Amino acid sequence: MAVKIAMIGAGSVVFTKTLMSDILATPALRDSEFALMSPTEAKLRRMETFGQRMIRDNALPGKVWATTDRRAAIKDADFVVVMIQVGGVEAFGHDYQIPLKYGVDQCIGDTLGPGGIFRGQRHIPVLVDIARDMAELAHPHAIMLQYANPMAANCLALGKASKVPFVGLCHGVQTTLDLIAGYCQVPKEEITFTCGGINHMDWFLRLEHKGRDLYPRLKEVFEKPEYYKNEKVRGEVFRQFGYFMTESTGHLSEYVPWFRKNQKALDMYCDEPAFGGQSGAYYTWCKTMADKYAVHDPLEFETTAIDCRSVEYCSYIIEAVVTGKPCRIMGNVRNDGFITNLPPGCCVEVPTFVDDAGLHPTAIGALPVQCVAACMTNVNCQILCAEAALTADPELIVHALALDPLTSAVCTLQEIRTMATEMLEAQRPWLPHLAGKTIRPTPTISIPPDCRPVDVPIDPALAIHKRFGTLISQPTP
């Protein structure tokens, strides 16, 4: 029986094309029905036309149709693939340009920091609505395959707001394995590994080739300038923390306070072009592509030939559920005891097995203490970001930004509140859940030169502490 796959956000034509090609390249899925949905009519029809050409040119029995009605796409779906980008490049511009005025320099800006936190405000309410539609309209046990960033905050919110089965998908582990294989000069498929952590901060806890620990070799090459130059930020975190991580310099530099807080740090660690750390690299790329595709159809000269599958997990998950042929992925899921020293209910990225009974995340246990401490600086922001969107409380946006590692390394609390207010006002068209709500102003208190502090009475037993900074314990009665 053909499966129905709803693709929400199918205006993302290049990514939609990749996932559709992967699915149609899978023999068991070649008769799939694709329901493409996007509010952007022009992009949607381009993708619909190309998908129908793929089916026709490859003589496949599948079906492709498109709609701007999300509920129609989700009705009777077996899988719902989410690739939304609410507000598009215009909203993304505010995510990057406004924080830059306050000294917060972002390379990617879609996962943490001001850009990630506000992207979460735009996406989480929509994701919750999609999950609600699935609970009402999709087939029982339908699974959401969630690709939208900020991955961890989005999935944390889904885990709080819905019982619909979901998994957040990223390709950071797959692409990092390619790099490790190259660095250590061993075939990728021969590497045995275990990863655990959070999305974009997943740590390789075990890394072996035919029973041999690869970490000594990896540490050796990262002491060489030509390797270190290739991945300065990830390389430095590896050298200091002892474990290799799944995110490259451009991404990782935003999740920690050490590499983008001032010009000295940027010049030292983020001086490679584009996604090697360049300011606004992802926004610049997205804007360039959007301007180009506004004039030219990006699919006009794309081949419809269906070849091998990409590294994306989507087609493998659907194949496993439909056929019972199991697969192992790295999935972003609710932390129900899978990583014991991260908070219950947060989003963790752990090995996940998939078969015809669904998703089966596996337990990692406890992360090394330094790794879990680094993750917690991000998890705290993710919790506040999700709670802000779920409760429509703009004050929590300020708190999320105040605890963001990069923002807090650059801005004062007052600057953070002012920046959040400016971003909220600029993005109101895409934040309907915050209509009529504002961030509380806290004007700077002016202190005259002759102002003396109020002499507040205190416990006499503590007076010596106030005077000398030494606490004298009171005798026990």
Strand order of the largest sheet: 3-2-1-4-5-6
Helix content: 40-55%
- Tell me the structural class: alpha/beta
Mean pLDDT, to the nearest integer, reads: 94
Q: Which residue ranges are poorly predicted, with pLDDT under 50 across at least 5 consecutive positions?
A: none
Shape: globular
Please describe the biggest sheet, giving its number of strands, its sense, and whether it closes into a barrel.
Answer: 6 strands, parallel
Radius of gyration: 25 Å
Whole-Å distance between the termini?
81 Å
- β-strand percent reads 5-15%
Number of alpha- plus pi-helical segments: 19
Number of beta-strand segments: 12
Describe how the helices and strands are arranged.
Blueprint: E1 4-8, H1 13-24, E2 33-37, H2 41-57, E3 63-67, H3 70-74, E4 79-82, H4 88-101, H5 113-137, E5 143-146, H6 151-161, E6 166-168, H7 172-184, E7 191-198, E8 201-209, E9 212-213, H8 215-221, H9 225-230, H10 232-241, H11 249-252, H12 263-269, H13 281-295, H14 314-323, E10 327-334, E11 347-355, E12 358-361, H15 369-391, H16 394-403, H17 405-410, H18 413-426, H19 460-468
Parallel strand pairs: 1-2, 1-4, 2-3, 4-5, 5-6
Antiparallel strand pairs: 7-8, 8-9, 10-11, 11-12
Helix pairs in contact: 1-2, 1-14, 4-5, 4-13, 4-18, 5-6, 5-15, 6-15, 15-16, 16-18
